[in-house]
Amino acid sequence: MGSLLPTTIRIDASLLNWHHLSTTASFLILSSLFLGILSQVLSRRLKVPTPLSEEVSDLLNRKRSYGANARKLLDKYYERFKSKPFGIDTMDGVKVVLPLASVDELKSHPALSFKASIDNDALVNYTGIGGVDAWGYTTLPNFPPDWTPVKPYQHFFELVAILSARIMHSDEAARNPEWTNLSMSFVHTAIEYGSALKQWPPFLRPFVAYFLPERLEKEKQWAKGRKIVAKSMARKSALGGAPLENPPTMLDHLSSGEHADKAGDLDLQLLLQMTLAVASIHTTSSSMVQVLYDLAACPEYTEELRQEVVEVLESSGGIFTKQSLAEMKKLDSWMKESLRMNAPDLTTFQRMATKPVTLKDGTYIPAGTKMELPTSAINFDASIYPDPHKFDGMRSYRQRQEDGMAHKHSFVSVTRTELGWGFGRHACPGRFLSDVEIKLMFAEFLLNYEIKNLDGQPRSKNVEFGVNVLPDPEHQVLIRARKV
After folding, report:
1. Where are the domains positioned within the chain?
2. What value does the CA radius of gyration of the chain take, rounded to a whole number of Å?
């Protein structure tokens, strides 16, 4: 018995030592594997300079700094990294700001998704905006002959809402104040809902969303909109599926022909209508008001622009046509310069990498990375636009007088230095509609009204939050009926 105990102890000790050695060896092997994998992962991470982190150490403060000073930061870093990409922390996550030189390389890259980027920024799962795969009314009052103070923003917001309803939905919807008011209010709700959610970390948003007043407001608007769309689809069904309007509206196109099977999907049809409202009303009305604010600051151009409208209409029999609008090259130039100086987005060419991408300069872009171009900074680059901070309403008009330039440098042009509408295969298709709407409104305004700033008042300053730019909705100008 006594001889067995030491033996047992020796055996147990041996087993214990072997277990210890085995565990140590396993740990070393696993550690080596982990470090090897980690090394590979780290080597494939995004590696671009993040200059704001050099100035602001706290992540949340960096995001807030970008939200409050996006233009200033983009301008500064554009000059510093003009030929290289750089990263910046935003409320939408880290975004890579691309150099202009990369636009041709990436404009149609199959691994870069415009839709994924928009869905991410719009918080589609909450706001309902995004997530869609590819597929004459009076609002201005009768002004007296004397100069009258007016805030143009709301008038043109309403006018564009009516125009959009007629084009996207139906004539009945355009004449229905409940629908136009709903589409206008939903634009604001969607923007405010997204902005409120972005103040919270992504992992808290599903919980926080239920307590935000914007969510409840969105649900109320959605319920009202569904009833109106249901009524329109019932009318269409009673017509045997025929278009509600001639020419057909967007609702007609998206519920007929190859899309006939979607006519009964009221939630989809409402989603399409609300998405189109957000996309069309806000941008077009803002651009139109910017055009007028620029004219109020430079009223000496009024007669020259008006005369062009008069002459073109005389040659077209007094009728606005697609061709007659195209002949209004001075109006087009004015609109283009206003867009350059007051672009509604400081960045365009938004993309998200769905697969890893390596740029020609060797920069590695991991899947999930969001990218954009610093369009506003490019718009004020003196090497591209001489005297870029001066508003020159005839800038592109003069360019189009040069040989071979008649059809270039227009309001809807998209080139590697004209990025207001984006670039590549996802350049904004709605720019052609916006062009027609703004020219019609601008021409009618010139024919019937005069505008100027209040005495001593400078050009209205824009309202900026993050990369979004709006004309000041509270700004007053003086308007009177034109004396003929």
Report:
1. 135-345+380-481
2. 29
Of the candidates 368, 444, 463, 292, the residue with the CA atom closest to the CA atom of residue 45:
368
Q: Are 225 and 251 in contact (CB under 8 A)?
A: no
In the three-class reduction of DSSP (H, G, I as helix; E, B as strand; rest coil), residue 294 is classed as helix
Give the integer Cα–Cα distance in Å for 434 and 412: 9
Q: Residue 310 is encoded by which pair of tokens?
A: 């008069």
CA dihedral 178, 180, 184, 186 (to 10 degrees): 60
Closest CA to 329 of 382, 277, 399, 430: 399
Convert the pLDDT of each residue in 352-411 to its tens digit: 999 999 998 899 999 999 999 999 999 999 999 999 999 999 999 999 999 888 889 999
Count of other CB atoms within 10 angstroms of residue 432: 13
Distance CA 392, CA 337 (A): 7
pLDDT reported for residue 5: 34
Residue pair 310/417 in contact (Cβ under 8 Å)? The answer is: no
Q: Are 479 and 147 in contact (CB under 8 A)?
A: yes
pTM for the whole structure: 0.82
**Length of the chain, please?**
484
Q: Are strands 348-353 and 112-113 parallel, antiparallel or unpaired?
A: antiparallel
- Report residue 7: phi and psi, to 5°: -65, -45
**Per-residue pLDDT, 34:** 46
Q: What is the CATH topology of the domain spanning 135-345+380-481?
A: Cytochrome p450 (1.10.630)
Q: With a cut of 50, say whether residue 50 has pLDDT above it.
A: yes
The better pLDDT of the pair 130, 162 is held by: 162
Are 436 and 325 contacting, i.e. CB atoms less than 8 angstroms apart?
A: yes
List phi, psi (to 5°) of 329: -75, -25
| Residue 42 binned pLDDT confidence (cut-offs 50, 70, 90) | very low
- Whether 35 shows a pLDDT value over 60: the answer reads no
Q: What is the pLDDT of residue 23?
A: 47
Residue 270's pLDDT is: 92
Retrieve residue 467's tokens. Answer: 């990369």
- Number of helices (H), then strands (E), belonging to the chain: the values are 19, 12
**Directed axis angle between helix 152-168 and helix 431-448, to 10°?**
130
Q: Cα–Cα distance between 49 and 88 in angstroms, integer?
A: 9
CA-closest candidate to residue 349, choices 93, 52, 118, 65: 118
Report the distance separating Cα 42 and Cα 27, nearest Å. Answer: 21
CA distance 378 to 79: 10
**CA distances in angstroms from 102 to 80, 250, 361, 418, 473, listed in the order given:** 16, 35, 9, 14, 36
Closest Cα to residue 339, out of 284, 383, 278? 284
Residue with tokens 């697969």: 355
